[in-house]
């Protein structure tokens, strides 16, 4: 008992530092997000996460009401299917930026950071399905927030139930991993899929 107490006392300071790291990271992210919202109170671009055929149509309609904003599409339907949807909505092709580097929700964000910085975008509308939005917001807070990029969620109504909390937890962990190492953990997709995990819930 005495040995255990001494060991705990010896490493008490180390435990405190480790425990404080998440709070420190969270505080920095919240500060950078606050600055971004202050400096760019209105969204300067539209970010649509691919993954559902309904999202491009919704985004095209949304873009009609925000004619001054460029649209960034991260993966999803191929160009030959996406472009006609925007064309039918009379959205200029010069406003549309298609990016197919992402392979999942985490990389939806990490692969576009440099593009947003290059175009000096500090605030985006974040468009995705309502069932997917909690996970997207958690990742956006970590990835975009750490880079000083604010976001305003725009959820597309569906009849699907919200994704399991485990998905949000796993991808939040991957987003934090990217924050510290630059590695997204996308390679893990070769060993399991979220569709497989979903069957467990």
TrEMBL record:
<protein>
    <recommendedName>
        <fullName>DUF218 domain-containing protein</fullName>
    </recommendedName>
</protein>
<dbReference type="InterPro" id="IPR051599">
    <property type="entry name" value="Cell_Envelope_Assoc"/>
</dbReference>
<dbReference type="GO" id="GO:0005886">
    <property type="term" value="C:plasma membrane"/>
</dbReference>
<keyword id="KW-0812">Transmembrane</keyword>
<feature type="transmembrane region" description="Helical">
    <location>
        <begin position="12"/>
        <end position="38"/>
    </location>
</feature>
<feature type="domain" description="DUF218">
    <location>
        <begin position="44"/>
        <end position="164"/>
    </location>
</feature>
<keyword id="KW-1133">Transmembrane helix</keyword>
<dbReference type="Pfam" id="PF02698">
    <property type="entry name" value="DUF218"/>
</dbReference>
<dbReference type="InterPro" id="IPR003848">
    <property type="entry name" value="DUF218"/>
</dbReference>
<keyword id="KW-0472">Membrane</keyword>
